[in-house]
Amino acid sequence: MTELTEVQRHAVKQTVAAERLEGWQPNRDDLADLELLAVGTLTTADYIDRHRRDAAARPVPHRRRRITLPRPYLVTGTTVLRNNFGFRDSSQLRDVEFAATAARLLQAHLRPGPSPRLVDADHIFALHRHVFGDVFGWAGQQRIVDITKNGDTFAPIGMIGRYLREVEIAVAATNWHRVDRGRLAYALATVYVTYNHAHPFREGNGRTGTLLLHQLTGSTGFLLDLSSINAAEWVAGSQDSAPFRRTGAPSPRPMIPLLRRALVERES
Questions:
Q1: Distance from C-alpha of 45 to C-alpha of 99, rounded to nearest angstrom
Q2: pLDDT average, residue stretch 199-213
Q3: Residue partners of 232: CB distance under 8 A and separation at least 6
Q4: Which candidate, 32, 72, 67, places its Cα nearest to that of 50?
Q5: Residue 77's pLDDT is what?
Q6: Where are the domains of the chain?
Q7: pTM check: above 0.85
Q8: pLDDT: which is higher, 187 or 59
Q9: Which residues are CB-contacts of 6 (< 8 A; sequence separation ≥ 6)?
Q10: Distance CA 134, CA 58 (A)
């Protein structure tokens, strides 16, 4: 078993927690690999390439090529997102996406986060580019299509900038160095639900958003431990926070108890 420092152990734990919220079910080998990545025994490039080769070697069911008009973000004739690996099968892409983004999330957790005063829309785009750049050529770019998910409709593309400016305002309005648990939970919830309604990317909004919350918490007397939250309650909280109108204000209230529960005081 790999010996980890407290920082490395927390980074691995929160990487797994963020990916599980998106449906990842890591096995023992996956967890062992993340530990090797954390201590530097395994390189990110080797880790991603191995998962790419494993996925490419796996047989995939034959599907009749559909004749469709080209659509933004999709491999022509499929419902698979255009990707840097050339995969046309969603299960292949999903496996490698989880591996690649886990490696990049882990890297981010192991580095000191920015001062909250430097957190703005550009920083959010840079986070997405870091986490998803191995997978998608359009990582770090604002989406150009309207999207829905599980019946939820997010901000229209023309309103994304406005909601991201509101994220910036919420970050700037909080004294991150002097918040108690209740105020921190409220501030994190406000940032997250506003960002989540903006949903600025075609894919990868959730993992980028939780990483943003970890970075903001880094300036406080608390750690954020998302391993205590399961995917069903996270999705329910996100859905309940959505505004009644696509251009309305989301409510932080459904996310506050979840985030309050996830806050752990740092050891002095």
A1: 11
A2: 98
A3: none
A4: 32
A5: 84
A6: 1-111, 113-268
A7: yes
A8: 187
A9: none
A10: 20
Secondary structure class of 222 (helix, strand, coil): strand
Contact yes or no for 266/222 (Cβ under 8 A) = yes
C-alpha span between 208 and 143 (Å, rounded): 14
Assign a CATH topology to domain 113-268. Answer: Fic-like fold (1.10.3290)
C-alpha dihedral over 156, 199, 20, 192, to 10 degrees? -120
Q: Which residue has the tokens 């009749």?
A: 64
Q: Are 142 and 160 in contact (CB under 8 A)?
A: yes
Sequence-separated contacts (24+) of 10-13 with Cβ below 8 Å: 10/109, 10/223, 10/225, 11/38, 11/106, 11/109, 11/110, 12/38, 12/106, 13/225, 13/227
CB 226 within 8 A of CB 21: yes
What is the tens place of the pLDDT at every residue in 180-204? 999 999 999 999 999 999 999 999 9
Residue 66, pLDDT score: 60
As a residue count, the chain comes to 268
3-state helix, strand, coil in the chain (%, to 5): 55, 5, 40
Read off the tokens for 113.
């986060």
- The encoded tokens of residue 169 equal 């305002």
Contacts of 90 (CB under 8 A, 6+ apart): 79, 80
Q: What are phi and psi of 67, to 5 degrees?
A: -90, 105
Contact 59, 111 (CB under 8 A): no
> Which band of pLDDT confidence, cut at 50, 70 and 90, is reported for residue 33?
very high
